[in-house]
Structure formats: C-alpha cells, structure tokens
Amino acid sequence: MRAVAKGGALGMGTAGIDRTVLLVVPGALFVILLFVYPFLYGLFLSFAPKQGDLLANYTKFFSTPYLSETIATTLWIALPATLINVGVALPIAFRLRRSTSMQRILTGLLVVPITLGTVLVAEGLLTYLGPQGWFSRILMAAGIVETPVHLTHNYWGVLLSLVITGFPFAFLLILSYITGIDPVLAQAAATLGASPAQRFRHVFLPLLAPGLAIAFCLAFVQAFSVFPSAVLLGAPAGPTRVISIAAYQAAFEDYDYSMASAIAMIMGAVQLAIVVVVLAMRGVSYRGPAGGAKG
C-alpha cells in the first residue's frame, strides 16, 4: 500500500499536479466574481455610451469642467488627509513601540471609529462641530470667539472626518511595521555612538520605507473614495463635490450607467497613478530588504 501511495504521489509530482493548489480555487473564484468581473463589466460599459463614439463618455468628462474638476477637488481632500494620518501616526507609533500596555489601550480606543463607520462619525461631528454644537459653544463661552464656528458643510468638516476615520487604520498599519523591526539593530547603532535622531534616520526609517509606502497608498485609496463624509459634512454641490458624487449622480440621478462606469474607471486610474508614483519614489529613495523583522 505504501508503495502504491508513494508511486501515486510521484506520478502526480511528475505530472506537475499538486493538490494543495486546489486550495487557491475558492479564493480565486471569490476575487473573480466580486472584483475582476465587475471591473471588466464596468470597463466594457464605459465604452458603450448612450450617444457618440466609444470615447464619448471620457471626452465628455474631461471637456466638462463641472465633471473634470472633481479630480482636483478629491485630491485636495484626500492627499492632505493621508499626509496627516500617516505623519501623525508615525511618531506616535514609534513612541509606543516598546510600551505593550499603552499599545493595547490605544488600539482598543482606535478600534471604535473603525467599527462605527463613516456615517455615524459624520453624524457625531455634525452634532459636535456644527454652528450650535458643543465645540462652538465652548469656544464662545470661553470668550475665544464671538460668533459660531463653522466646521461643517465645508472643506474642514470632510477633512476632519477623514482624519478621524483614517487615522486608526494608518496607525495600526505603521505600528505593526515598527514593532516588527528587531530592536537589536538600534541597540547596535547606539553602541557605535549614534544619537536617537541618527538611529531613527539611518536604522528605522530605511526599514520602515516599504511599510510607510504601503500604509500611505492604502490610506490614500481609502480617503480618495470618500462619499458619505462629503455629502453629510461637506457641500456636495460646491467645494466638496468629489468624483464619487459625480459617479453617483450619473448613475442614480441621470440614470446614465455608462457615464457612471466611465467616471469610476477614471477614479480608479487616478488612484492607480498616485500609488505607482509613491511606490516608484520608495524604489528610488530606498533599495534594500523589505524589513528587519525580529528573528
């Protein structure tokens, strides 16, 4: 029996068939059904406009300022939010890399905005940051301002919402990268006379470069797809009319699903372009191992 089993295993190996590969099939089907097929269908639909040639939707988008300007508006919101989230998360995560108890406490607190979702966070900000909200009333009672502060239904309301909902995501990602760096490397640099700033710049930062690039890309994609915050806390017909709102209006107000698909494709192309630029900058600024994990 053992000989038969061994012979069968050798036969499968000779034929190039490995049963463990079959474990990939469910995941591959999941990706195809929920990601690849919708993308290909949307791409095909974007080249089937109601009127005009194949590129009519794209021509209309870039020739209409009311539509094309949504790209700059979305970038003007998403990029600062991403820079704030990653820039603030990095020093905090670096400071807490050795404190396990503080990591647990802060992680537990930061999970709350993630579980609440953008809609509930936006509703809370409307109550807290509105002209008659607690924040404005406290400032007026303290004599800091004389008139109500308007932090909602404008750019700042959307930006604050993206920071609140995006910071936990960026912090947890960066914290996982920092805690994975072997502390012996920094200790070795310290014995050679390196200052804390030099250890961060020459030891931690190069090893964090791949992780920071990935965290930035994921945080940017999350911020670029902003929709509920731009509607609830911004001015969807004015300064915060992002590209996702344009796609929604094309699909569910104009019932032009072909145009909505074209806007979605443009939205994905812009995100991909930013991701490629960030990853290319990482490749130019740092060439080396992907990390210095604890061994």
Task: Give a concise summary.
It is built from twelve helices and no strands. With 295 residues, it is an all-alpha fold. The chain has a single domain, classed as MetI-like (MetI-like fold, Orthogonal Bundle).
Main β sheet profile: none
- Count of helical stretches: 12
Q: How do the SSEs run, as a string of H and E?
A: HHHHHHHHHHHH
Proportion of residues in extended strands: under 5%
Number of domains: 1
Mean pLDDT: 86
CATH architecture: Orthogonal Bundle
| SS content category | mainly alpha
Number of strands: 0
Q: Would you identify the CATH H-level superfamily?
A: MetI-like
CATH fold-type name: MetI-like fold
**C-alpha-based Rg, rounded:** 25 Å
Shape: globular
Unreliable stretches covering 5 or more consecutive residues: 7-14
By CATH reckoning, the class would read: Mainly Alpha
N-to-C span: 42 Å
Helix content: over 70%
